[in-house]
Design a protein that fits this description.
The chain has 467 residues and is mostly helical. It contains 21 helices and no strands. It has one domain (17-466): Growth Hormone, Chain: A. Helix 3 packs antiparallel against helix 4 (94-114) and helix 6 (124-154) packs across helix 17. Its main location: membrane.
């Protein structure tokens, strides 16, 4: 009788676990999509509107540089957001940080939609704009790490790549939503001068609706099981950031460099440079360009999901290496095809470029989570991601504008991106693939050693074989 009674309990438990994993996947997907929607809306508006609306007195060229620099300024505050969220995420939990970062990001974005322009309020308008951008940077610095750990730490070891793809999908899906909203306003609801006068504000104000949706979903998920275990055994690090850099500084640097190329390449499109260049220099229609970028984001999302799944079968490092090779090959053709002035050729270039982006992004959540010990994992993944964002994406659009202004050709931008891609390829090749390693706090001794192929210290033979 006892045996007949146990089976339904096991089935019910298994069903409950799968249901919770689905809730976590939805919470991380919706939350990061909202976060990145907010981020990308700003970047697109910077290239299409803000140079005139907020920086008009300095002239068109310098105004465009400053507008793109305002995109990059937020990246400088990402590490601070990562430090804060990592510290408290390792001490009080992943879920609380997820909810807080969502509210801060969405509130700042909504406020941008209500800002007066320079013509209405003078110098105070760009100052407030920059302060709101800083808040976005603080929020983004803490968002990613929490979402990633909620997804990966809830997942079975053989499905971490797939589970980690859901927070990763937030970036391309956020770009899809942002591009679609901008295209809708520019091409249908507020075409022409109306878009510059008031149409650009609607996508920012729409963020308020998304915040409510994301907040409700994120509040409904359980805390990460790894953090529950850490809290139960009272094994939280007192100062996780200090411990991270004292014991794992080289690992943070390598992890940051892994992300540099993907971030820089991605911000050519998400940071507004490609949209601005295609409209102002090549002469393509603004709405057509926004539609093309929306298409590219869909391809990016598909490639992100498929490569994340592939990393569960073939390993994170191998998939990453292939992704960097595809990205490196696709960089120059993207700009060559764009410069033809044929929108169809732009679509072709974006296709291969987006596949490369997905290949260098899909496995990142699982890769990072398996690199750092449990008690400092939130700090490790958040800070590595934030530093990689600065090295790669912070001022990539600004650098691209400057290079084109100085050289008169996008080949210089291609060379810049290719150099970063080579650096990231070398960096990921220095990481030991630890797919499936036990992420529990009880296995922290193994987690703390051997994440780099150059690190042979204290690695027992049994651990070496597992790695």
């Amino acid at each position: 009788m006892a045996g007949t009674e146990e089976q339904p309990v096991k089935k019910a438990t298994h069903h409950s676990e799968r249901a919770n994993q689905r809730r976590v996947a939805m919470a991380t997907l919706v939350g990061t999509t909202v976060e990145w929607y907010d981020y990308f809306i700003y970047a697109m508006a910077a290239g299409l509107v803000f140079s005139g609306a907020f920086f008009e007195p300095v002239g068109e060229e310098l105004g465009l540089l400053i507008a793109f620099a305002s995109v990059g300024i937020s990246f400088l505050f990402r590490p601070l957001g990562a430090f804060l969220a990592g510290h408290y995420g390792d001490k009080i939990g992943r879920r609380a940080m997820l909810v807080l970062t969502l509210v801060v990001m969405g509130g700042a974005t909504t406020a941008v939609g209500l800002l007066p322009t320079y013509a209405d309020a003078g110098i105070i308008a760009p100052i407030i704009l920059l302060l709101l951008r800083i808040l976005q940077g603080l929020s983004a610095g803490g968002e990613w790490g929490g979402a990633v750990l909620m997804a990966v730490e809830h997942a079975p070891k053989g499905r971490r790549g797939r589970a980690g793809s859901f927070p990763q999908l937030g970036a391309p899906l956020g770009l899809v939503l942002a591009s679609a909203m901008m295209a809708l306003m520019s091409g249908v609801i507020a075409p022409g001068d109306a878009f510059v006068e008031w149409g650009w504000r609607i996508p920012f104000l729409f963020s308020f609706v998304l915040i409510i949706l994301g907040y409700i979903i994120r509040r409904a998920v359980d805390e990460s099981p790894v953090f529950q275990e850490i809290a139960e055994h009272k094994q939280q690090s007192s100062v996780p950031v200090v411990e991270l850099f004292r014991k794992h500084a080289p690992l943070v640097v390598v992890a940051a460099l892994v992300f540099a190329a993907c971030n820089a390449a991605g911000y050519m499109a998400t940071g507004g440079f490609i949209q601005s260049y295609a409209v102002t220099e090549v002469g393509l229609d603004r709405t057509d360009v926004l539609n093309a970028v929306t298409y590219g984001a869909v391809i990016w999302a598909i490639a992100t999901y498929l490569t994340a799944i592939a990393s569960d079968k073939f390993g994170r490092v191998r998939v990453y290496q292939l992704g960097h090779l595809v990205l490196g090959v696709a960089i120059f053709p993207l700009f060559w095809l764009l410069n033809t002035g044929d929108i169809a050729m732009f679509y072709v270039g974006l296709t291969f470029f987006a596949i490369g982006l997905g290949g260098t992004y899909g496995a990142q959540a699982a890769l990072y989570s398996e690199m750092f010990p449990a008690s400092i994992r939130f700090s490790g993944v958040s800070i590595s991601y934030a530093i990689g964002s600065i090295v790669g994406g912070a001022f990539a659009p600004t650098i691209a504008v400057f290079l084109v202004q100085q050289t008169g050709t996008t080949n210089s931008v291609g060379a810049y991106l290719l150099a970063l891609t080579v650096i990231s390829l070398i960096a990921v090749s220095l990481i030991r693939d630890r797919s499936g390693i036990n992420l529990s706090i009880s296995n922290e001794a193994e987690q703390a050693i051997g994440a780099l192929v150059t690190d042979k210290r204290q690695i027992p033979a049994a651990v070496e074989e597992k790695a």
